[in-house]
Amino acid sequence: MNDKKTIGERIDKVVNEVSEKAGMAKDKIAAAKENVIGIAQDISKSVKKAANDSSAVVSDLTHKGK
């Protein structure tokens, strides 16, 4: 036979390829999630710092005005 594959073998090959690609996509999604969490944490820290800095400025201005 001229290296013809059965339908089952061809289906298995496609299923395996799809499974591999799904696994790679899952890994990429997990990495992207980690990046998003890191970015969100950085933004949160920056917002908190800005809030603290602005509170300090307001406090300084308030005390200087008295």
Termini separation comes to 98 Å
Residue share in helix: over 70%
Low-confidence stretches: none
Taking the sheet with the most strands, its summary is: none
Q: Would you count the extended β strands for me?
A: 0
Global geometry: rod-shaped
Q: Radius of gyration, Cα only, in angstroms?
A: 28 Å
Structural class: mainly alpha
Strand content bin: under 5%
Order of helices and strands: H
- Chain-averaged pLDDT: 90
Number of helices: 1
Characterize the structure shown.
It contains one helix and no strands. It is an all-alpha fold and 66 residues long. The mean pLDDT is 90.
Q: What is the secondary structure topology, with strand pairs?
A:
Blueprint lengths: L6 H59 L1
